[in-house]
Amino acid sequence: MKHNNNKGLKPALAALAGTALITLSGCGSSSDGNSDSGSIQLYNGTTNGPTMTLSIADVARTTAELGNVTSTHSYTTDDYDFAIQYRNDQGNLVDIISDTLSIRNDTKTLLMMYGNIEDQKLLSVDLPYRETSDMFSLQMLNVTNAERNFDLYMAADDGVFEQAELVGSAMFETLSASTEHKLDDYTFYLTEAGSTTPIWQSDETRINVDDALVMAIRPSYDNSSNYLTVDIITNGNTPYSLKNKDAQAQVQFYNSMDEYPSAQFTASKGDFQLSTASTGADTLSQTLELAPNSYSISMLDEQGNTLVDNYLLTLEQEQSSLGVFYKDAEYGPRLMSVAQNLVPNSVSHQVTVVNLVDEYAGLPVNKLDIYFTLDGQPISQTEHHLDSVSSYSAKSLTLLDKTYGFYAILEDNGQQIVLHQQGAVDVTADGNYIMILEADANTASGYKLTTLHTVAAQGEEQTQ
């Protein structure tokens, strides 16, 4: 397979040579009745990697984000060149790993990429097809870290841990032995290896596919806490992604209303109440850790007077949210919730642009076009843009590990107007970004862009 130029990856990753493919044996997926053919699927379990494209024999197939799989693709039995790739700033596919694999008769080859993307860890698991039955097989692969090993327990229906059956051990980077189970509803439990104290419990989960299932146990970055996520990979296009049933959620707040230079935020439910410390305008509040539920949110001034009261905010398990307070031109103070992505992405980054602009030169503005450009690049040539971002809404895109120019463009009767522009918007730190565009009478343009850096276990904010 032709090797593409790796320019654009982190230097440590770009310098690595091709990685040897480690092949493990598993027990199979459901038979499709074909002879002399097999299939291939990619699972993206990396902690900080980009969206990955699987290419076979120089043909780009499908993509997988963190915790997801590509479609399963069938091929006649033979040896094939393959590559796991990402798209660069020009939209071209660039190799992360390229190698050769054998498609075996009546076998699915599951490629599992995991760990730090710079280490290029890749396992290949062969799963012979299974005959149709009312059973499924299960194997585990622990891709957390070398210091952590687990025991898996399963309880039928919504069984408690005391009713659960010990299935086996998930040792780091070792595919467990295959076990057989009836199609049913299950609650899964994890303990530290050798312990009988659960550290992780799933919600009740219906397993209704008679495939060979592979359970990948990986770190979770949906929250700043040290949680685990369990992805159960089937022949389908979407894994069962199981969260910790007992996990908490978290929220921070951002006050864009400059008439309130300092504010406190409170989450309430019944007799429960939790508040932040006093927080300046245009800065992030401290993080409130809350049980998953729906809460009444209030904003108070420095004297404790209520400015906004009883706004609804709903949080799910492991969710990390940013509550943005802003002033609607027609309805006054409002609250919008924006998801915080805390995955420590290092090759590419999710950037969410929040548009709080509602007027220009005294006239109402309903939407803006947002562009991110490289040095010397006009907006007409950039691959990175968000079209028609409505006022009081947010849209997301993916940017590579670079520094960009930022343009907010207003189109008025066929005329494009630069509402705000800014050079050197840096998105090279591991993690992701929320960028809030809002009015500011103290800047030359009359607007400002506030960049909030979101990443697990830390939070930074910078106003530009």
Automatic annotation (TrEMBL):
Source species, domain of life: Bacteria
Protein source organism: Pseudoalteromonas qingdaonensis
Protein name: DUF4397 domain-containing protein
